[in-house]
Amino acid sequence: MAASSPTILQFGTGVFLLGFVDWIVQQLNERGDFDGRIVALKARPGSSAALAPLNRHGGQFEIWLRGYRDGELVDEVQAVNCLQGAINPFADYAAALDLAASRDWRWVISNTTEAGIRYVAQLAPEEATPETFPALLTAMLYHRFSHFDGATERGVNVLCCELIEDNATTLQQILLRHAADWHLPVSFTEWLASACHFCNTLVDRIVTGEPADVPARRTLPADAPLLEAEAFYSWVIEAPTSVQRLLPARAAGLDGLQFVANLAPWRERKVRILNGAHTAGFALSLMLEVPTVFDSMQHPLLRRYLERLVYDEICPNLSGDDIAGYAAAILERFDNPHVEHRWENIALNALSKWRARLLPSLLAALAARGSPPPLLLLSLAALLCFYRGQWQGRVLPVRDDLAAVAECQRLWQSSGEVSGAVAAIIDSELIWDGCLQAVPGLAEALAAIIVQLERDGLESTLATCLDD
After folding, report:
1. Which residue ranges in the chain fall short of pLDDT 70?
2. Nearest one of 117, 328, 111, 331 to 235, comparing CA atoms
3. How far apart are CA 436 and CA 201, in angstroms?
4. CA-CA to 96 of 20 to 30 Å: which in 209, 282, 290, 323?
5. How far is CA 425 from the centre of its chain?
6. Dist. CA 57–CA 222, nearest whole Å
7. CA distance 230 to 35
């Protein structure tokens, strides 16, 4: 690639990265003298069909910002042209290596969901194309290291957006593990540690994808991608000064782009409250045929469920300033009529999301009160029902790791009564990695709720849980 070769390789082609990171890079380019040129890489093997819209107009797309920012109503369409296009590196591995050898490459940005940053043993790249994001990145960085003879100035800065604790440093450890598996030289692992910076980050913006309606004015052709997002955004980055200097947030007037020394308290409240409420709400809402977060906030039982879950079972076990105020602001964002945040999209990879977002709240509440919190239990019971794949004759949109989904559905079909199926699922190492086995009485409590859901119906059971 020539003078326009990318400075940023973005692993993930979903709407969140487009409507969040790419929008921020566009603001940095326009207002902060930043040179951000992005190529997006598919984060998992599979069909390249979904990349076609991103490549149709050379990566250009528009984002429709709707909602409130700093108390002011925002309703505007903005064009984003910092994205140059997208490739499938698993189908065109040679193209991925060409990108890795670009002198201009400076940044890695990823959002592969909670399921994406995990270690899966892989053959060395000379034997087979890597099949996971961490293995692919290891191979690309080693190619870059070799191509430039280990030059320190060719290191890259890695910003991870996945909603797991210590996302970038966890990724770094997986890269080192692949390097050891493949017997790569110590000089490469030293280069990873000294020339590359792995920065944990915390992201926050609701990006819903293509809107149901069309704005009155667009600057790009009608067939260019159009995304809808709330006006609010927050990107908190735990980074050394050397990396902070490269992102002109202040010069660009991006108050939502912040640098901190310790991300932990920021992450805990955001993941447990905002993301936790999302993961707790999707199964019940979809089983009740309520399609969006906003619609759930208009449903009297679902609204009470989300509010009670947040205020009564999540917030009491969090420390920090004005937790209740933060929670109120989150619930206010859920009630934004301008953003169609579909539960079907939130449902993606919900097993790992529940483990990362809600299990800590369940364990904390259990320790504090001595008994399982009823609404968190209900959210897990609904999740298990959802992963059966159907409810009352309706097919449910289960999208997750294929092996975990198959195992869950096999156990539902082969274990006889509800109690046996639930116990088997809770004990499954493949599905839960052992994290639920130590919760006393969990299988029995979940089975009782699921029996009630099947006997009395969703709304009756939800009302009973709320009245307890």
Report:
1. 1-3
2. 111
3. 27
4. 209
5. 24
6. 11
7. 25
